[in-house]
Amino acid sequence: MHAQVQPFDEIKPGRVVRLYTPPATISGKLWNWRYLILRRVTQLGILAMFFGTARYGWEVAGRPLLSGNLSASEFLGIIPMADPFAVLQQLLTLHVLDKEVLIGAAIVLGFYALIAGRTFCAWVCPVNLVTDAAGWLSAKLRVPDFCSLSRNVRYWFLALALLLSALTGIAAFEWVSPISMLHREIVFGIGLGLTAIAGIFLLDLLVVKHGWCGHLCPLGAFYSLVGRIAQLRVRFDDNSCTRCAECVRVCPEPKVLDFKLAAENGLVVSGECTNCARCIPICPENSLSFDFRPLIKQHNLNALQQARRPA
Amino acid sequence: MEKKRRDFLLKSAQGAALAACGGLIWTHLLRQEASAAALALRPPGALPENDFAAQCIKCGQCANACPYDTLKMATAGSSMPVGTPYFEPRKVPCYMCPDIPCVPPCPTGALTKSLKDINKARMGLAVIDEENCLSWLGLRCEVCYRVCPVKGKAITVENHPRKISKHAMFVPLVHAEHCTGCGLCEQACPTQEAAIRIINPKLVQGKIGDHYRLGWKREDPITQDFAATPPPAQSDSQKSAPKTAPGMDVLNQGVDY
Fold first, then answer.
1. Cβ-contact B162, B168 below 8 angstroms
2. Domain containing residue B56
3. Domains contained in chain A, CATH given
4. Nearest-CA residue of chain B relative to A181?
5. Given A73, A160, A193, which is nearest B75 (Cβ)?
């Protein structure tokens, strides 16, 4: 199986390369947008729960539904949650934090590290709504990139945020984070944080595609590192893939769709994959799908056995 | 090989230079943001400002718990440090709930749960602008005294005698020892701009220090510290002289010049 791996731009022998054709029917379209719709429902749903609890005091069985914001919150007055990156910065200021926020950070960190990977970026983060809009418009208007930027800049930002937290004694990214600003101002009241968001929109639209989420954001970098061993992955079926690269075209982190690596492992390896699932419905061969690592392993074994069986 | 090494070193230097520049700008932003904290009035039980700034995760759970919507979360670009909770007493003061509902939801300990008695909260200090206070101008007002939840302790009204042929004045005085900084007085003050305001005590409060003794307030005789001690030997005069009496310094050590 490994020997058959083709370089990215070569077409597999004996296979007809079909490109993606949008479905004609509305139900077909909706089905193709299923993950997009789910993502928006999740993002807006989480925002609405925070907003409703803060503004209208939404409760379930007398307990506040979801109090706080993405920095730290409490679900139903019992389950604490906290942004592990924010807590890490705070710990670096050498302050002793209450255990509630530590437990909350552990819960969130555990969820993304063990189960969901960098899912936060595509399914929870409110800035994703803005950058997706900018990305969509940028593609529509065919805006060329103004300059190139290394996608590794975000790791430098991450390191700098941690270093400056230790040096200045305040959580460095939390005090300038446009993510927190946007989220806080939606939940607690509008302010100038929205200008930062406008800046991100323009950056993504006119300067560098996926400039913020894909190049600069230290929180995304944090979750990229954290999500490396997560169980939820995009499964890659090498047998059916024709290397048409429609998935690469729509992927906001195109580097993660490295066909060689994907074919070797039967899945998208990189922690930088946000599990946004744009690639899944667009694949004309259905070679991509969500799956958990153990099931992917099983799938790969089955595929290997099938390939070895004489026709 | 030599070129490769040169390129690598150059690239590293460039990266480090960029990071350093970015770090400087970033640090400047942080310091500017944090310096606004002097004006912010914090929820009850807040840690000292530096620790509060480090520990507050800006989640707003205190604001959600406040039944009077007193607590607000600072937006970006406002005069408060971004994202932190604060209140403006002239708009909505702290009504000093006895159960202090804003403190327990704090997940980080930026608001200390050791605060059990709301009268022990120190959110700020009421300060009177005597030039614009109606009572100090000679009218009968005393509204601040009447609305004060720690009435008779935090604010008292004192008789202020003036020259003969003028009527006496009844003036409010704030006692920092009891003032919680709740701001009911600031909200209630009837002047166009409040003549009593809650301010971060650090901005207004002095400290007399250990070297002044209010002799008339002491029960033990003031002279006891100055009980005759054998005159110090010339060599170790510096060591022994000031120990017994705080406030003894170079000016009253009897050093010959």
1. yes
2. 29-118
3. 2-32+231-308 (3.30.70), 84-225 (no CATH)
4. B76
5. A193
